[in-house]
Amino acid sequence: MTQKKITINGKEYPIVFTMDTLMNFETIVGKSFFETDFKTLKDRMALVIAAVITAKEDTDLTIEALKGNNDLEAIQQIINAYNIVSNAMLAFFKVPDVVKAEEAAEQTADSKDEKAKN
């Protein structure tokens, strides 16, 4: 588990991504992490908050702080924070290189089959 930091309104907050982050997210939004596509700003904000709570349970980061001045700068901060959390999520769900190679080979074979049909 690697701790990283995000910056919201000039203040740094620690984040981590663990199974607790998944559960914190589900508590916040009331739905499964695995059924979420993170296309909405609300889901992205919830994941950021969940990762901060996982790192520091008594954090002072709030949804209101994330929303800042309700402007484009606030959205950019949320997107930047989400990207950092998302990278931590990718590290948590790291797929072994052997599996990646097998998946790439399967995709190549599927592509060749598709081209042959056309």
Short précis:
The protein is mostly helical and 118 residues long. The chain has helices spanning 19-29, 41-55, 63-67, 72-92, 97-117, and strands at 4-8, 11-15. The chain has one domain.
Descriptive account of the structure:
- Helices cover 62% and strands 8% of the residues.
- It is mostly helical and 118 residues long.
- The chain has one domain.
- Strands 1-2 form a two-stranded antiparallel sheet.
- Strand 1 and strand 2 form a beta hairpin.
- Helix 1 (19-29) crosses helix 2 (41-55) and helix 2 crosses helix 4 (72-92).
- The protein is elongated and about 55 Å long.
- The model has no long low-confidence stretch (mean pLDDT 89).
Number of structural domains: 1
Structural class: mainly alpha
Which H/E pattern describes the elements? EEHHHHH
Give the strand line-up of the largest sheet. 1-2
Please give the count of helices: 5
Number of strands: 2
Mean pLDDT: 89
**In whole angstroms, how far apart are the ends?**
47 Å
Uncertain runs: none
Strand share of the residues? 5-15%
Tell me the helix content.
55-70%
**Rg on CA atoms, Å:** 18 Å
Shape: elongated
Main beta-sheet annotation: 2 strands, antiparallel
Keywords:
118 residues, mainly alpha, two-stranded antiparallel sheet, 2 strands, elongated
